[in-house]
Structures
1.
Amino acid sequence: MAIKFKRTKIIASLGPASSEQETVNKLIRAGVNGARLNFSHGTHESHKASIEKARAAAKEAGKPVAVIADLQGPKIRVGELPKEGILLEDGQKISFAHDADYGDSGIIPMQHDLSDKVQSGESMYLFDGNIEVTVKDIDGGVINTEVVNGGKLTSRKGINLPDTDLGGDILTTKDYSDIGFAIENGADYIAMSFVQRAEDIENLREYLRKHESDIKLIAKIETKAAAENIESIVKASDGVMVARGDLAIEVGPEVVPVLQRKIIGLASEYGKISIVATQMLASMVDSPQPTRAEVSDIATAIMAGADSVMLSDETAAGNYPVKTVKLMKRVILYTESNAPIEPMYMNEDDNSQGSSIASAAITLAHQIQAKAIVAETASGRTARNIAAHRPQMPIIMATNNLRVAQQLAIVYGGKPYYLKSPKKAGDKAINKLREDQKLDAGDVVVLTYGEDPGVAGGTDTIKVREV
């Protein structure tokens, strides 16, 4: 193409550092394709304002942008402790209980009752994994433990339970309130925290179906159980996020790089979105320059074939949100230009018409060295099927459904175009590219479409067109 665009997409978390409309405009113009709302922080009022600003910025930039509602989930924390904290020593016996008063009882308070969840012999990790205790027994709602690795514990620090089965109880009252908000305010995706098995995703999907919502579901992979059930979770979801912070605590930091590559591969195999998140450019919260390790980390995710890479505190609370996005985009473009990934292949068991059309279109496009693949799509499935193969040329995704265009904004290799009429949407997208000088006269493209424009699942035709 005459003008190059990145294949790996950028998701930016919105927060205090990106609360002004002009900042959001700059973020999206700099290369942001998805706006994440972190429901662990903020209010519905502030998140509503963020959605409005993201939509306004997308309109100003002339491109669809996905809005992702990231649920807090059952984030388990200790309660209030003395201001100076408490020192836990190796071998010390210490107890935990829901809403305990440490000053009166010496029992560490917890914000959730886990006495019916944990079992003797299981490990509990506190304060980002810095402190480890082993459960010895449970007595009348009190969890008695022994300290394995001690340290100083202060109020409201998180607890990770890699050995504990939460039994499907992972959506809280707050989550349901946030889901209702996401439906009402037109979020494109919901990211579900602390998923343990495919049933967690299926239960939320059924809840959305009852509320007549077509929001797509992203499973956050951040528990040991999710890592063990990863293939079934990928199949049940619309996308997966490698949430490396809690995941490293649950499975061990040495496991995460290999597991990340496996998750990205499975997502591509089943035609699902993959997102790599957590501390991608963490040093740029305070510094205008990244570390060499962070740049290498981004490049590794790109070369593995991730659909999107995500920024958290860097854009939500950092000092250099726009500079961070621009740096990430430069890394993406350089990596994609100099270390292109090999085409991938979807699951062999998927012999559906859509998957077969996608495979044939890509083969043809490579054989004739097409400048682009143009996919007319009503539901987005045709475009996602093509993207899953990671073709070497851009994918132009033409749809008459604005919601679908927004959902496709974080899909690998794609450039979604929203066109009000489904009739000859692909041809209209090609003409728009020609007008914008992104295609030249004589360029060849491969076009996929259906005989019934705007009908989901109707893609049945492949056409070669010279611009």
Note: DSSP finds 16 helices and 21 strands in the chain.
2.
Amino acid sequence: MKILMILAWRNLWRKKRRTLITVSSVVFAVILAIGLISLIDGTRDQMVESIITNTTGHLQVQDALYDDEPSIDHSLEYGHEVKEVLDRYSERFEYTVPRIQGFCLGAKDVGTRGVFLMGVDPGKEDRMNDLSSRIIEGRMFSIDDDYAVIAEGVARLLELSIGDTLLLLGQGFQGMTAAGTFPVGGIVEFPLPEQNNTMVYLALPEAQNFFAAPGRLTSLILMLENEDQAPALARDLYAGLDDEWYAVKTWEELMPDAVAAFEARDAQVQIFAWILYIVAGFGIFGTVITMMHERLREFGILLSVGLKRIQLATICMMETVIMSFIGVIAGVAIGYPIVYWFHRNPIRLSDELADVMLDMGFEPVMPFSISGDIFLYQAIVIFIIAVVVGLYPARKVFRLNMVSAART
């Protein structure tokens, strides 16, 4: 076997050009597969991250009725029972983000507009989505401040600027009228039109007073270090709470439409991936066929001088395995820097494609993922395809007429 390995290695470099062509086909297939899957996974990760950081978090503790009918009347009483259960599992999540939110009518002078009011703890909100970094005018409030921070679109539509007064009118807890005037202390800008044209922020205590709901929350968000642990933690929290009053939901349960869209997209990705593998396989197969026909005379002579067919087939398989291995390693080595560069510098969409992404509620960028699973999985798949294709020369050896091949 050692002698056959040596012969296979020497055969590869006896015709360097032929070997490099075959290796290059494997390298190209690996780079193409890594690039495509990295782009697809990166885009999905970006969409999921956008949902988690800007909307739902990993988990939410809510009133049992809030998800079916989101209103202040179905807000959560953040009392001893909830805090006790959270303390019991505090090592399994990083931090909590309390919110109280609802729709209101925002006005200045004679201009009015529907807005979405959100009461937040600014320190915890910053930790979740870095809200303060979006300030373009003024400053972010602290937990004790009584002024509002509004989105740039709201400021533009209501002609508000720093120091102006915003009137808010809505419905408070248990039918109370929610009304108040708040000076504008900051303006934030969001890339998504839906957020940019509706969002108004108050400090959590101020918003609770506005809604006449002291000590209540519409949702308590839990942020985890590992998203995969969310379902198990949700089950444990749910078991510790009275399900007649409380509900614990993962982001998938809160956003079923998004999950369905991701599942449909994943099915499309699998189809594209297999098309890519088939194309890559035929590309490698074409180079192997060309190499095989160039060597027919060589194979005929080797068989004529006494080399056994099984030995020659083994040498051909060894050559294929070595070339595939070199191609896969080189493909990963070349593909990683390319993918990493696009990971750090994501592709920004423009024109109609950007509008489509914004309409879907996502930032118009196409990031690449650098997850190690992508490189390993694509390398293994392409290697297996190359080895399977390499069975063709081995099969050809057993059916080869050595007399006619030697005269070729």
Note: The chain has two domains: 2-52+258-406, 59-223.
3.
Amino acid sequence: MRPFSMATLNNPIAVPRRSRALGVFCAIGTGSLLLGLLIFLGIGRWLVVEDPLGKVKGIVVLSGAMPVRAIEAARLYREGYAPEVWLTHSREPADTLQKMGIPFASEDHYNTLVLIHEGVPAEAIHILEPPIVNTADEVRVAALSLARAKGDAVILVTTKVHTRRVRLLWRRLVPGQGRAIVRAASSDSFDPRHWWRTTSDALDVVREVLGVLNMWAGLPLRPAR
């Protein structure tokens, strides 16, 4: 910056120009701050999406958040949206615990018990193969099972904050392999309007945002197997 001098005082244009530049910088800073605040406040609601319900071949319970996802799937089954409920199967932590001599019933085992408790007949519950590690695996397995069943659509049941990433993964990983109706568990406690108030909601938002960014980047980050 040039030093202030008598030349500046004698130049009637210099001061207004500096004032305008300062005003522009202030406006940019204020706009950036407001934009950042809007993104911060709205990111929770942006992550939550749902598709209109319709009759499908199967209702898929994505791994995690027991028992709310299974309870929601059972409700949709009772309302007649599908004749079957499909569960994904993860080998962990069962494989690791087995090596330690510690028995562990898999997550799909407990989800099966929840579904039966909620009125789904055992014969309507199916475990999908092969085993999964992450949500991308679940999407691929669900699409493969849909193709085997010669169906055209499935309902994917997950938690609220997870819905957008699930929808994006289906569209990216299995385009043209049937339609996915993404639904959130209605009893999920996630608060999209005030997600920063609890550590669990805040951690969920951070994880999902990173997951979406990873997917947009072409999934360069992959889980350890």
Note: The longest strand covers residues 153-158.
